[in-house]
Amino acid sequence: MAKTILIVDDSASVRQVVSIALKGAGYDVIAGVDGKDALAKLNGQRIHLIISDVNMPNMDGITFVAEARKLPAYKFTPIIMLTTESQEEKKRQAQAAGARAWVTKPFQPEQMLSAVAKLIAP
């Protein structure tokens, strides 16, 4: 059975590029348009990995990660931050909230898949 990945990004084009790369590698994909939307999708279903943007309307990625970590079913779900941010302070905040990896946009799909594979096998 395919592993399920939740993508959270307010950019439809980024969601599409990431989704195509992940589906091509054999993963199932669920998408959220911002932290609030993604949190609503964390309804107990099995999600093997989360990929989240940092800067989003309604609820930013770091707040989303912290909120997701409060949910028992997702306490240990690996989370990759995918963002244009490269500031060390943002990285520290994301790690403190519970993110496991950081991929900077623009990214190559192979780079993303490599980060995903390190955290979960297809």
TrEMBL record:
Q: Is Glycosyltransferase tagged as a keyword?
A: no
- PROSITE patterns, alphabetically? RESPONSE_REGULATORY
All copies of domain Response regulatory, residue ranges: 4-120
Q: Which residues carry this modification: 4-aspartylphosphate?
A: D53
Any matching Pfam family: Response_reg
What GO biological process terms does the UniProt entry carry, in alphabetical order? phosphorelay signal transduction system
Q: Keywords of this protein's UniProt record, alphabetized? A: Phosphoprotein
Regions crossing the membrane: none
Q: Which PANTHER family match?
A: CHEMOTAXIS TWO-COMPONENT RESPONSE REGULATOR, STRESS RESPONSE REGULATOR PROTEIN 1
**Full protein name:** Response regulator
Query: What is the name of the gene encoding this protein?
Result: cheY-1
